[in-house]
Specification:
Radius of gyration: 18 Å
CATH superfamily: STAS domain
Protein name: Anti-sigma factor antagonist
CATH topology: Transcription Regulator spoIIAA
Number of domains: 1
Distance between the termini: 47 Å
Strand content: 25-35%
Shape: globular
Number of strands: 5
Oligomer: single chain
Largest sheet: 5 strands, mixed
Strand order of the largest sheet: 1-2-3-4-5
Number of helices: 3
CATH architecture: 2-Layer Sandwich
Structural class: alpha/beta
């Protein structure tokens, strides 16, 4: 899932789940919305990305390239080293600013109470 929010200067994109070939149908619409907002700074929150392939990287690269052409910048926040590696392999890591200080909030698992599997008689 991809959520978009905007302030007067920044567009924030929060990605949850996979950013890959299976999700590519939504990329053009999201890119058009982000570009249409015309904010100088695009922040991509990747704290909840489970997996990203080269298709997901190409989507992020297209956002960064569009922003750079308008004189803006794209920041990756909470990106896992494996995701940065995918972008680096694509030769586009220099299109992004990396937020090294951001710490993702831990995802808490629901409280699970263990029960006795033995039926009572």
């Amino acid at each position: 899932m991809i959520e978009i929010s905007a302030s007067s200067t920044t567009t924030t994109i929060v990605v949850s789940g996979d950013l890959d070939l299976a999700e590519r149908d939504q990329f053009p619409e999201i890119a058009a919305r982000v570009v249409g907002l015309r904010r100088q700074l695009v922040v991509v929150d990747m704290c909840r990305v489970n997996f990203m392939d080269s298709t997901g990287a190409a989507f992020l690269i297209s956002l960064a390239d569009a922003g750079r052409k308008r004189g803006g910048a794209t920041v990756l926040r909470g990106a896992d080293p494996r995701d940065l590696f995918v972008i680096e392999v694509c030769g586009a890591l220099d299109l992004f600013r990396i937020d090294p200080d951001h710490r993702c909030e831990p995802v808490t698992a629901p409280d699970v109470t263990e029960t006795d599997p033995t039926p009572s008689i």
